[in-house]
Amino acid sequence: xxxxxxxxxxxGLARRISLPLSEKWRQVYGSKLTHFAEDKxxxxxxxxxxVSGYTAMMLGVGLEYALAEDVSTNENNVDMDDSSANISxxxxxxxxxxxxxxxxxxxxxxxxxxxxxELFSEGKLDEAEKYFLSALDEAKKGFGVLDPHVxxxxxxxxxxxxxxxxxxxxxxxxxxxxxxxxLSLGPEDVRVGFALHNLGGFYLLQRQLExxxxxxxxxxxxxxxxxxxxxxxxxxxxxxxxxxxxxQGNVGDAEVLIRDSIRILEEGRLGQSQLTIRxxxxxxxxxxxxxxxxxxxxxxxxxxHVLEVTKGWDSLNTVAAAEQLAITVQALGNLNExxxxxxxxxxxxxxxxxxxxxxxxxxxxxxxxxxxxxASRHRSLNASEAMLELNNAKELxxxxxxIAGVEMQFGEKADDGLVxxxxxxxxxxxxVALLTMMQSLNALGKIEITILELHQAIEKDSGDDxxxxxxxxxxxxxxxxxxxxxxxxxxxxxxxxxxxxCLQHLTGLLSRSSIKRxxxxxxxxxxxxxxxxxxxxxxxxxxxxxxx
Length: 548
Prior knowledge:
Elements: H1 2-15, H2 25-29, H3 40-45, H4 104-121, H5 125-143, H6 148-163, H7 167-185, H8 190-205, H9 209-226, H10 232-247, H11 251-270, H12 274-289, H13 293-310, H14 316-331, H15 335-352, H16 358-378, H17 383-407, H18 424-459, H19 467-479, H20 487-490, H21 493-510, H22 519-547
Helix pairs in contact: 4-5, 5-6, 6-7, 7-8, 8-9, 9-10, 10-11, 11-12, 12-13, 13-14, 14-15, 15-16, 16-17, 16-18, 17-18, 18-19, 18-21, 19-21, 21-22
């Protein structure tokens, strides 16, 4: 029964959206409208919906974007690495200044709300929950069950349950908050738009994409009418609607929305804000995924220029942007510029970080890949130069493997003899270390084969000893079976893809004519091919679920 009520409520939200999805987004949301006249009391009431940040982390990109509403336009306070989630503070001004309600219950509501916020910010969610439940009860008693203060209390509690991943408890509270706001303030009030945006973020977090799109579409329509086409909060909802469309496979419309959201921020003199930089980074990633390499390069150059001006080269954010640009220009064939950028990135990382930091190892891996490509170009023209470059790449890869090995301490015994779990950022570092280790070993195997082939071309009779290449690739395959690696890391798509690549590489090595006739090798090849098919099917299913 409860789930049926929730579906009816969401269907009601969808019916109030009058604009069809098939229209061009720029026409739908770009029409000129009269801007809402600014009113101090109107903006004062917005304070009760504040930031609640979800983050999406991507290896090597350093990109984050908030899914929940941020009504502040002071983007300078947004930190590139800030993944904290704040909740609304419960402060609310009534529409009529003469209707101020003050009694013992409203006083308790304020105390409980403040205490709940304090505990929430400290990460004490169980204790905060008790205070938010009490605040909701006092709000109903003090203001009345249909008052917007009750909506605020519902929203606070919903955000807390979202943080605890108790989604079944959070959803009805989000819906109740919206319903109360619509009853007391009207369905087109801007605060309804903010609440819808946050509900959209809640659904997007769970990949309930149709529900998220419904919420974001209506929130965008409300914000367009009240805030105007050039407001950062209008751009915020536009960006997240674009992200929903991207996940649904509608990349073209998603790109239009995200581009427009960035344009609004730039025209509002927020072009150098960290929020705008993050969103440009996200757009660049989309362009790369759709093979629009030249456009991605132009955008990445713009990002790097802004960061050079605002942060300088003593910032890891600038280094990350330069490294992303290097990877793109490498894909476009400009290997010399890619190498120059990566060499500078490596030097800065070594200056700013510890010598065994995994970021240093990852940059060494990227630089080695560029040097390998240069060696491949020189192979037919100048074998000795190609050999020199391969040896340089080999040295970089060995250093990357050594550094990754230091960071890969999953499930190993500490000084006290016990096996400890690796939480949070340490686990993320371990994830990057494992991927760096696997890619470096796989690349090392390819270098060994290339060196062997160069020797064969020069000496004509140097044999076909693939043992060094085989050793590197087998180590890449065996590394994932190391005890203690968390299951969620082993199942991560980048790890599974690299494991698949290693299996295919080993299959190619064993299939070389000089050894493939061995009976044991034939049996191993059968097992490898079977595992390859299984992983390919697994990755195919994951991709289907991603867009379903």
